[in-house]
Write a structure and sequence with these properties.
Length: 108
């Protein structure tokens, strides 16, 4: 999967909350900021469109935490041309019927 999406995994100690807390805190922050109270949508497409609008509005209205003279949106737009295009969905599951396996791989 890392090869498909062209990312390098970074290991952390599972019991060390200070190493992965930033990501976990961001998930909680997004839940609190965008999904309280609990909202209902007719489809995933409707949910994704609403969420994209909310994220873009937030990014345009808030300063970047490290690049203080730009908004999050401005910093992202500056970085966007340097991003690697998405290679499509990762399909990590392939079902193979036992009958399709060569005889040497089948358990007799």
């Amino acid at each position: 999967m890392c090869g498909h999406y062209l990312v390098e995994p970074v290991a952390c100690t599972p019991a060390s909350g200070w190493k992965k807390g930033q990501v976990e805190n961001q998930v909680g922050l997004v839940r609190e900021r965008f999904f309280t109270p609990r909202l209902r949508f007719k489809s995933y497409d409707e949910l994704n469109a609403w969420l994209l609008d909310k994220c873009v509005a937030y990014a345009k209205a808030h300063r970047h935490p490290e690049i203080v003279d730009k908004t999050i949106f401005e910093a992202f737009e500056e970085e966007r041309p340097k991003l690697i295009p998405l290679r499509g969905c990762f399909d990590g599951f392939h079902a193979v019927s036992v009958e399709d396996l060569p005889g040497s791989l089948r358990q007799q």
